[in-house]
Specification:
about 475 residues, alpha+beta, Uridine Diphospho-n-acetylenolpyruvylglucosamine Reductase, domain 2, Uridine Diphospho-n-acetylenolpyruvylglucosamine Reductase, domain 3, Alpha-Beta Plaits, eight-stranded antiparallel sheet, five-stranded antiparallel sheet, 17 helices, 19 strands, about 40% helix, about 20% strand, FAD-bd_oxidored_4_C
Amino acid sequence: MTQNAENFASAVAAAHPELLQRLHAAVGDAGLVLDPEAQAPYLRDWLGKWQGRAPVVVRPRDTAQTAAVMAICHETHTPVVTQGGNTGMSGGATPDGSGAQLVLSTARMNTIREVDPLNNSLTVEAGVLLAQVHAAAAEAGRFFPLSLGSEGSCTIGGNLATNAGGIAVLRYGNMRDLVLGVEAVLPDGRVWHGLRALRKDNTGYDLRHLFIGSEGTLGVITAAVLKLYPQPTARATAWVGAGDIQSLVSLQAQLRSRCGERLVAFEMMSQASLALVLKHVTATRAPLQGEHAYHALVELADTRAEGLPDLLEQSLGAALEEGLVQDVAICASTAQAHALWKLREGISQAQVRAGKAVKHDIALPISAIAGFVADADAALRALLPGVRIVNFGHLGDGNLHYNVLLPLDTPYAEYAAHTATLNREVHDRVHALGGSISAEHGIGQLRRDELPRYKSALEFELMMRIKQALDPNQIMNPGKLL
């Protein structure tokens, strides 16, 4: 430890002597991070939007140590920010600047406890990486469908706390739909052992759903039983171009009727989104000749290869004949499919290089998407003439990433002012159509102050009552979500 680190540790110990002594007794040397340089990755979100301070980062190795830590924090009224892989998009896992909030990292709780192929279930601790779950499922001849760009660094605990979505929601659902049981440590240190690997359990309130999507405000998720599925052995992938977004909405409905559960992905991106990727991401090329107002990446998957490419070709051929789409490119190899997915996955990287994005992670009834896009596009272009709208997302489940790209040299004050105005314009329209201002990224700090505008008073009251019942000392992730 450097001299500065030793000085910092001494200062923390002087300010919180009893707390640090008790935490050390609970987790040992390996469970405490006091060095400022070692703490730094825990105190800043990966997007670089939020920076905080903490007297200590605690890294319990198991549920028992987590329970001991939470009992201490409950008794001493010490605020706790639980953190998994720190890959969130809304600042939900970053402490504030007060220096009073302890960070509890689940990174050391990384054991895969059980793989049960016959029950199609996998029991893992909260710190296990999503990529490790994929590997464990594949080794057992099974498949875990949650797919995210951050799967090499995001953790199952974080996926649960934010009810993560991703590209396979169309067929398999969000994280909430992929969990059978949850183990959680309550704010007072008691452990709820809810690791039931059952698909039927009609014995009262389903408490696991309180913790899933709660963003660390009700307790610490320490383990979960995940659903597994048969491993797909065949995929068929295509790219389509259409003249308008309503055509793609109609196409996905038609494909769902023709292909059933084989349709696993229907990803949409506007021509503006594709153009950004082609300009700013290396080794990419346009999949179709000419420009089309909207594009979709379509993928079928099945446990049987027979007939899958033919099914996709026939279905898209029918759409061409009906005029729903203007052009189609069907992949003849895995390499071609990877090239198409690189276009879809390159949008975030392209946006960072091209400008400052005001991002909206919204959900709408699929039938309302075309009307919303037409109305919002017109309103924003009237508000900011010449503005670039980067519209892409998981069209099959109604989740749009409807972003507005401002120039890279936009001053911070101007960017902040535009953000507030654009958020109101977009989110008011989403709410009026029965949509949500957060489809898969969570509320965190980013949308916290907007939430009361879009939740009914009764809904907000019920959420606060649940919070008060489980966390009466209000120590769990203060300043987030609620």
